[in-house]
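REVIEWER CHECKLIST
Item 1: Sequence provided? yes
Item 2: Single chain? yes
Item 3: Sequence as submitted:
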Amino acid sequence: MRSLYLYLNFFFVLFLIGCNGQLVKSESIEEHSKKIHCALNSQILEIEISKGSLNANFIYEGKKSLVNLLKFQDTYQILMKFDPEVGQLKINQAGTELTQFKNQKETRTSCKTISTY
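Item 4: Structure as written out by the authors:
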């Protein structure tokens, strides 16, 4: 009886390990080259990210500047020269949601990501 118990436990552990391998893994934002389009203050914002880089081109109001992405768990803080009209920005790992912190308010907008590989 004890050997049957050990045998079942062994297969249960293997089953759990196999199920864990089936979990959906989200990609990092820098896994592929991509362009991310979002609305920011009723204007179009484009973020261009090159594969393997945490530097990005930030194109907003006709101006292009280089920004850095700093990874925190499942989001990226966009590090740039402070602009009171923009505030602080972060983007989720999938590149589908932009969060703006401005005047002690948090605003979330959806984004469209285009992989350019």
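Item 5: Key structural point noted by reviewer: The first strand starts at residue 34 and ends at 40.
Item 6: Recommendation: ____
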